[in-house]
Amino acid sequence: MDGKRIPLTPATSGNFDTDVAGTVKAGASVSIWGPAGGVVNGTLAALVIVDAETNTLTLSAYWQVSEDGSTWYDVAGAANNPANVVLATGTAGADAAVTKVLPAPSAAYSWSFARLVVVNGVATGGATDTYSIQYKYVRGA
Description:
Number of strands: 13
Distance between the termini: 10 Å
Structural class: mainly beta
CATH topology: Jelly Rolls
Strand content: 35-45%
Number of helices: 0
CATH architecture: Sandwich
Shape: elongated
Number of domains: 1
Radius of gyration: 16 Å
CATH class: Mainly Beta
Mean pLDDT: 93
């Protein structure tokens, strides 16, 4: 594959302390069509780590795209718009962090910017409900 492999980007991380269900936390945006060459189709992926500690709280992740870097649109996982799968659910005890690599959907490559977001569901979050998002990709020559 021709191009420059980009090292894992710095993490965007935080928590859901006092955030009501449905709060979206965004990772940094990736410029798909940058001055140093575009992101090679099929290479953009996010390393996401989530830890849901609050009882019944759920954490999910999905991709968003933008043309101007300010107005963001949710990307469906497929043409039939399937629901996003929960990555972690809090229980009454200590829960282990969940680590996943999530590839960007093919639709992301036709937009100027892409980013991964994490959203909490069901319950208001706490300081121990955390997320971290990093990216890895190949930049075209």
